[in-house]
Amino acid sequence: MALAYIATKEHSPQESKQAKAFIDSFLKRSLHNLQEEEIQRHTDYKAVVLEHKYNGKKTQKKKKSKGLSAKQKREMKLFHLKPEQQRSVFLPLNELWKQYIRDLCNGLSPESNPQMIQSKLLKADFHGAIVTVTKSKCPSYVGTTGIILQETKHVFRIVTQHDRLKVIPKRNSVFTVEIDGFITHVYGSKFQLKSSERSAKKFKLKGTIDL
Amino acid sequence: MATNVKDKDAYLRLNFLYQAAHCVLATNPENVELARFYCHTEKNISKRLVLRQDPSVKRTICKKCCSLLVPGVTATVRQRKCRQRQRKTVVRCLSCGKTKQFLNNPSYVLWGDRPESQPQYPQSQSKQVATQKPPVNSKTAR
């Protein structure tokens, strides 16, 4: 109503008079229980200051992350193996691994190209393999044999024949893997990668091999 | 599997890791950590090489902590109501508590099995990317 009242002000004086009269009568009719002054007050031209409503900083909803952070993973000990592991439990894993390697190399035979097998083994998985340390800077590691349970960036965790979990650093040692009489040496210093990253990495052929 | 699949070695490796995780859990149900580690590496490899995992594989791995979900051993499976005459299967990981929900809809067809997901033009049909060979001891989520 106030709007209509304001709008009428812009017209010519005669028209506005008529309009005013009409509106007054209309208001009286419809709001007959209000006093005239009150009506006047209600319909007065009012300057309304439109304020920018600002109610504090809007807190952005944090994206709910699905995964765990590295810290949480460490605290939950997601990948910590218990020190007592039985070797006999992991023999089926070893069988599975042998099958996998045979599958990967299309049946190991002495005639097959050793280079091709080497390049395949580089990207293969070593979990479950029986491994022996042949050379190492630290002499106490030499000769330990066991099934690889876990391969991390710097370390192999193996289970030895005496049902003990041993942690062997890759650095400065050479491992031997035997599959069906096919003996492969793995230079640990060149292998210092996460096992998942190894499958994507390109290895350089040349390079000095140093213990 | 077709003979000329790209990244065949990687697929073999994924297959092996998944089976190894099952093998470890089957022989020693206490050893959740090792199975989880294998699943974690599997997930990472498929991430790095951008290989699609089969839904039947994906549904048995926890999204949060990567542990292998075997009903009764590392996960609980419950049937819950969700709407009228609708039930859902809720799989809860026992180590981190993350849940997966599947509607019990027998007429649901996976996107990969639908006809419109296949490329339309006939020339590229010979180059279809084969999905990962389902492992021997896989258990489908549904």
Structural summary, described in words:
The complex is a heterodimer of chains A (211) and B (142). Chain A has 211 residues and is α+β, with helices and mostly antiparallel strands. Chain A has 7 helices and 6 strands. Chain A has helices at 2-9, 13-30, 36-43, 70-76, 91-104, 114-122, 195-198, and strands at residues 130-136, 145-151, 155-160, 165-169, 173-179, 182-187. In chain A, strands 4-3-2-1-5-6 form a 6-stranded antiparallel beta sheet. In chain A, strand 2 (145-151) and strand 3 form a beta hairpin. The model of chain A has no long low-confidence stretch (mean pLDDT 79). By secondary structure, chain B is α+β, with helices and mostly antiparallel strands. Chain B has helices at 8-27, 32-48, 55-58; strands spanning 75-83, 86-93, 99-103. In chain B, strands 1-2-3 form a 3-stranded antiparallel beta sheet, with no helix packed on it. The radius of gyration of chain B is 17 Å and the shape is flat. The model of chain B is unreliable at 124-142 (pLDDT under 50). The interface between A and B is medium-sized, with 35 and 33 residues. Chain A: It comes from Erpetoichthys calabaricus (Rope fish). Chain A: This is Ribonuclease P protein subunit p29. Chain A: Its main location: nucleus. Chain A: InterPro entries: RNase_P/MRP_Rpp29-subunit (IPR016848), RNase_P/MRP_Rpp29_sf (IPR036980), Rof/RNase_P-like (IPR023534), Rpp29/RNP1 (IPR002730). Chain A: One of its GO terms (cellular component) is ribonuclease MRP complex. Chain B: Pfam families: Rpr2 (PF04032).
